[in-house]
Design brief:
Blueprint: H1 16-23, H2 27-31, H3 47-55, H4 69-75, H5 85-101, H6 109-112, E1 115-116, E2 120-125, E3 128-133, E4 138-139, H7 146-158, E5 168-170, H8 177-198, H9 202-209, E6 213-214, E7 223-230, E8 233-240, E9 249-255, H10 258-261, H11 264-283
Antiparallel strand pairs: 1-2, 2-3, 3-4, 5-9, 6-7, 7-8, 8-9
Helix pairs in contact: 5-7, 7-11, 8-11
């Protein structure tokens, strides 16, 4: 089941019990409270896998012998059963649109690196224009997916307008990236590396389809491309070809200002969404037996 990220600002306010019950709907939220030692004493190899088992009610939080009492108290009785992913996504979209309807988003156009006609803002994303009206409705010549719409609306609401500094850092070195990094590597970097290994035309596609620009051997990589998923949130893709018995490597980097313009949850959703889209595009160019699925 794909992971749908819940934005903290979209969670219910007021009743603390209701808030707590709404919090733990993804494995990563549970993982954040675990000791992250990957000791295996719970009978499962990694803390992230244990978190997923707790969410599925296959394990109890108390099954972690190293979990402190404070974390156990937070988790006890606060695990929501698996819910319909479409419903979660729809609720997120609804709450984000309600917030946008209460703001003058046209006045934020300059901060966003967007254009405005007073009734909507137009934002250039991956080389395509997306128009967002005052009610949060998104229109484009491209088909819009939830993985993109959610970060786009979050960007409109929270972007500080920080100009990219040009200093690239890995996801784990962003202020809140460390906790998310294991899942980011699993859901984003590893699948994208598989695509790059099996499809030599990947980077030409990134430049052509997504208006990327080739970078000059960034971090001594063999190939590097800069993408602009959002105007003030650039992303650098670096690929090192296999050599001397060493396997290939691929890593994504973000400008060190990224979290000033977009929450780490939205960065994760956006980046993994791009990878899933690339998987589907590459899959269509195979005979159906692609290893990308």
């Amino acid at each position: 089941m794909p992971l749908i990220i819940l934005f903290p600002d979209c969670l219910p306010r007021g009743n603390p019990v209701r808030y707590c019950m709404a919090r733990f709907k993804t494995p990563l939220e549970i993982y954040a409270l675990l000791p992250k030692t990957n000791c295996g004493e719970c009978g499962i190899a990694t803390c992230l896998a244990f978190a997923a088992a707790v969410l599925k009610e296959e394990k109890r939080p108390s099954g972690c012998p190293r979990l402190d009492q404070a974390a156990l108290a937070k988790l006890g009785g606060a695990i929501s059963k698996q819910v319909n992913i479409e419903s979660i996504r729809d609720e997120q979209l609804k709450e984000l649109k309600e917030k946008i309807a209460k703001q003058d988003i046209a006045s934020r156009a300059g901060l966003l690196g967007a254009a405005s006609n007073g009734k909507s803002v137009t934002i250039r994303c991956l080389g395509k224009d997306f128009e967002v009206d005052m009610q949060g409705a998104v229109a484009s010549q491209c088909h819009t997916h939830a993985w993109f719409t959610l970060p786009l609306l979050d960007y409109i609401l929270t972007c500080e307008g920080a100009e990219p500094s040009g200093k690239w850092v890995p996801f784990r070195e962003l202020p809140k990236g460390k906790t998310w990094n294991p899942l980011f590597e699993q859901r984003c970097e590893k699948p994208l590396k598989r695509i790059a290994d099996s499809h030599s035309d990947l980077f030409e596609g990134l430049v052509g389809m997504f208006s990327g620009t080739s970078a000059t051997r960034a971090f001594n990589s063999d190939i590097s491309v800069v993408l602009f998923p959002l105007p003030r949130v650039p992303m650098l893709v670096c690929y090192w070809r296999p050599e001397d018995g060493m396997e290939s490597q691929l890593h994504l980097f973000f400008d060190d200002t990224a979290e000033r313009n977009l929450s780490v949850e939205s960065l994760f959703t956006m980046a993994t969404g791009i990878v899933r889209m690339l998987e589907r595009i590459m899959y269509r160019h195979t005979d159906g037996s692609s290893e990308l699925s």
